[in-house]
Write a structure and sequence with these properties.
48% of the residues lie in helices and 10% in strands. By secondary structure, the chain is an alpha/beta fold. The protein is globular.
Length: 402
């Protein structure tokens, strides 16, 4: 089975973020995993044992249970999702994909965004996309920034988003958001309006890329497809649910060098994105608001707890991430050179010195070894990860083999 077709089948049947499905793909390969999930081939215990014994799995120790336990866990999933395998038509999905000019990108593809691998066993199995696929290559060379926030922004939030995004996209920085109402839509629209880049913005959907949601954003999504990218980890036809919105937030954080929160209530999906960014070692910024505004309570909470740094203008981020270097460079070769020659601070060097080559160590361990606040270490690791100097495998950090 051709591997793109296999991954499309896996997305149709399996729930995202299932570590046992990742384990099966690693042990058996995507085609065999797809056959098993679609019940075209039974998963036999002896064959699973043999494949497991011959593998060099890098999955976390939590999955290194007995072969019988992992086998039973997979069988339970096959049974639980059996109705999906019986009711969904691969041929119909293929026809829909062709009519929409949509495509699927897998971890084996050259244009797979490597920063998604920082999610470990929570990374997407694959991603569906709409828009010129060659734009994915931009994400491998230019740092992207996510801008998320309230679905009911004030005029202040609207103005702050326009102000910050306009200056960021002037450096040809792609803006990532979730395609939702409020701050998401403002960020996408301003990026499309003001950016001179070939990839002004990316929308991560909580539904299939063939289902415009919300409906009033259909025209916005068309503009994003024409000039940017519309991405999703779920199959075509999948409807949006509250859980899907929270689930896709980890992908927004993983694709971004830095996340900016603009207006978020005390309980907000934007704060969920913020926490994913912190777990991945990405930088986090929050725009301060009025002390009387409930839409800024979440931002103030992040600032008060020292989880985010305040941002009042885009120039602060531009200088910190050296984005002016990218805006001054027009050809891809020079962009790649800049990405390979990062400016390393003393903190970056100290972290590099204590990181092992193979067996990763936790942020807490790094903090103990160099005597620095874990939050600062998380931010520095995000920078090193973007420049492909370090890797995160199941929340353990090590030097990237070169």
């Amino acid at each position: 089975m051709e591997h793109h077709h296999a991954y499309a089948q896996i997305l149709r049947i399996a729930e995202p973020q299932d570590p046992y499905i990742h384990h099966a793909i690693e042990i058996l390969g995507a085609p065999q995993t797809a056959y098993i999930l679609s019940r075209k081939t039974p998963l036999k215990f002896k064959e699973w044992q043999k494949a497991l014994s011959q593998s060099h799995s890098s999955m976390s120790e939590t999955l290194h249970k007995s072969s019988e336990e992992t086998y039973l866990a997979l069988q339970e999933r096959i049974q639980r999702w059996s109705q999906r395998a019986e009711t969904l038509s691969p041929e119909q999905e293929h026809r829909s994909a062709q009519s929409l000019n949509s495509w699927i990108c897998t971890p084996e593809d050259e244009d797979w965004p490597e920063t998604l691998n920082d999610l470990g066993s929570s990374r997407p199995y694959a991603i569906w996309g709409r828009g010129e696929r060659k734009r994915l290559q931009e994400l491998r060379h230019i740092p992207a920034i996510s801008v998320v926030g309230s679905r009911e922004p004030t005029q202040y939030g609207h103005s702050a988003t326009n102000h910050i995004v306009q200056d960021l996209v002037a450096t040809k920085t792609p803006i990532i958001s979730g395609g939702a109402l409020g701050i998401d839509a403002i960020a996408h629209n301003k990026a499309l309006e003001a950016s001179p880049s070939n990839l002004p913005t990316i929308a991560l959907m909580a539904c299939g890329v063939d289902r415009p949601y919300p409906k009033q954003h259909q025209q916005l999504h068309e503009h994003i497809i024409n000039r940017g990218l519309l991405l999703s980890e779920v199959s075509l036809g999948t409807p949006p649910t509250r859980w899907r919105f929270l689930q896709r937030n980890r992908i927004i954080a993983a694709l971004s060098e830095l996340t900016i929160i603009i207006e978020a209530r005390w309980r907000s999906g934007a704060l969920n994105t913020a926490h994913h960014a912190l777990e991945l070692g990405r930088e986090l910024r929050a725009v301060p608001g009025s002390i009387f505004s409930p839409t800024s309570q979440g931002c103030h909470k992040l600032l008060r707890e020292g989880l985010a740094q305040p941002i009042t203008c885009a120039q602060e981020v531009i200088e910190d991430l050296h984005l002016e270097n990218f805006s001054a460079t027009s050809n891809t070769e020079n962009i790649q050179h800049l990405a390979k020659e990062p400016l390393l601070t003393e903190l970056h060097q100290r972290i590099w010195d204590v990181l092992p080559l193979q067996q990763g160590i936790s942020i807490e361990k790094i903090s103990m070894l160099i005597g620095t606040n874990p939050r600062n270490i998380m931010s520095a690791l995000g920078y090193l990860s973007h420049h492909r100097l370090v890797e995160n495998t199941n929340h353990l950090w090590h030097k990237k083999k070169r």
